[in-house]
Amino acid sequence: MIASMLKQSYADLVESDPEHWGPEVPKWEQFDHEVFEHPDTVGSCVFLTWYDDQIVGFGSYDPRQSPEFGVVGHNCVLPVFRGKGFGKQQIQEILRRFRTKAIQRAKVTTNAHPFFEPAQRMYTACGFRETGRHPWGGDSSQNVIEYEIKLDNNGGVRTR
Fold first, then answer.
1. Which of 70, 73, 107, 138 has its CA 20 to 30 A from that of 46?
2. Would 38 be classed as within a structural domain?
3. How many structural domains is the chain composed of?
4. What is the pLDDT of residues 17-66, one digit of tens each?
5. DSSP E strands: which ranges in the chain?
6. pLDDT in tens, 109-129
7. Domain CATH code at residue 70
């Protein structure tokens, strides 16, 4: 289920650049397997988002570095539901969950490829600040953008 949503969401990207993005597909399948194989650990950090009776997408996160920080994982919205605010709602839910665990900062990464520009805008709209860039997998033609947000435990975002 999880891998299927990721494949649908990234189909255009994988098709346009199979050399870089094709190797991600087995990783999505492994993540799907781990989510359902380990419901008390990995699986407990994934949630589905529904609209009416349809699955819109899912959010995932990794709180293992708490209380210092939590990592936002996949934030997947199926193509038909994009542009309706579901991705932002999923990020806000992840941040809410981090706050309940008294996590101080949230980190997230995305790619600098133009396909990910909506994600980049969404993260900054949610209050994340860019903290760095580096080559993706050692490939200087593909950069990863790192973002971070400081959290308070009163439902808000801390600023400097």
1. 138
2. yes
3. 1
4. 999 899 999 999 999 999 999 999 999 999 999 999 999 999 999 999 99
5. 46-51, 54-62, 69-77, 105-111, 129-136, 139-150
6. 999 999 999 999 999 999 999
7. 3.40.630.30
